[in-house]
Amino acid sequence: MAKYPESLESWREAARIAGRARELGLGLVTPGALRREVAERIESFIRSEGAEPAFPANLSRNVEAAHYTPSPEDDAVFEVGDLVKVDVGAHLNGAIADTAMTVEVGGGRQYQNLIGAVREAVEAGIGRVRAGVAVNDLSLAIEAAIHRRGLKPVTNLTGHTIERYLLHAGKSIPNASGMSAERLEEGEVVAIEPFATNGFGEIGNGEFGNIVRFRLAPPVAEAALSRLFGRFRTLPFTARWVPDEVERKALTRALRKLQSYPVFVERGGGFVAQAEHTVLVLPDGAEVLTR
Questions:
Q1: pLDDT below 70 — which residues of the chain?
Q2: Domain residue limits at 266
């Protein structure tokens, strides 16, 4: 018997909120807008809708593929021609939805091919989803859509299954074929997440992206960290969300014990576009939760 996630309606509601937050973010990414303020407005919207951000709003630009969120001190602005990935997540009691889209700041058409490639690729991948399908079938469809645009998929970034309080739950959805022998199962929640580039087709690690997460619960004796763990569990978070000075200092001291996220940067200096939807695997297709 297929196993669907508990509180499926919570997943659907989290996805509705995440989808609206994504669209809000795409509209806020304008010339001269402060990156930090855009991230905070996206996250505030999620909270105002009754959910919590599943991770800090990612606003990666140009050669950055993912994992950049503004620091508390970030005063940089978006510039005309920036290619920005707006990647957001929302959760309700651990029921997580993850979604993204790419926009060119200022409304230009310089990167229309890249943006079109990932829009087509995410739909191609979703179109193959059904219970029992080989993950490689999705990868083939995603890869072909990107190649049709004369571009390359980013081969070492993938989509992923999602479980309660687990953003990456163990099963990957590669954006290039021949990399998975897995199959999708009815009731799984899956993020289909193509990345396309006009560069080399791989990412490497850049500088710290201002995102961390707990791997394990801290000792009870470390009260400030325990309070932070109570808020964030094992989900990613950022110092912008820690206004308390005692907790901020405890977080700084504990950074080496936490998982930190570097910005993913295209190895060949190519620009990167991303699209993502969270879907529910059904017997004969997909319910696109973040549409």
A1: 1-2
A2: 8-210+262-288
